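Q&A log
Question type: sequence-to-structure
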Amino acid sequence: MSAKDIIAAVDEATTRVQAAPETYALHAALLADVTALMVQQARAALDRTDDLLKEALRANSDRSDDEIATLRTLLAEPLITSAKSHGAIFGLAEAQAGGLPVTEADPSSPQWQLIWRLWAKYFVAGQRFYEGERASKMFPWPQVEQG
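Response status: OK
Response body:
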C-alpha cells in the first residue's frame, strides 16, 4: 500500500477517535496491521519525494538550476501533492502543462515503429531491460556457465 494511504488511514482514524472516543476499539482493530514503524517510513518516503523530483530533473545535464527550480514548482502539485496513488497517470497533457518538453508521437511514424518493435522484442524476451546511453542491458544478468 502507498505511503499516502497509510498516513491517510491513520490521520482519519485519529480524527474520528478524537471526535468520538468510543470508536477507539473499532479504529484500533481496523489498523491492527499498521505499525508505528510503517507510519514513520511512510512519512519519511513522502518527505523524500521532493528530493527525488529534483534529482530526476537534474538527470538532464542540459537543464539550468533556474529551469530545474521552475519545473519543480510546476510538477510538485500534479506529481506529489495531488496524486492519489503510485499508479497515478501522468500523460502527455499533464507533462505539457507541467512545462516538460514533450511531443506527441505519431504511431504511423518510422520512429514510433522502431520503438514499438523494440518493445515487442523486450516483451518476447520476458526480461527487464535498461536502456543506457550506448547499449541495452538485460536484468537479471544471464548466468554464464563456468567450464
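Response note: The mean pLDDT is 86.
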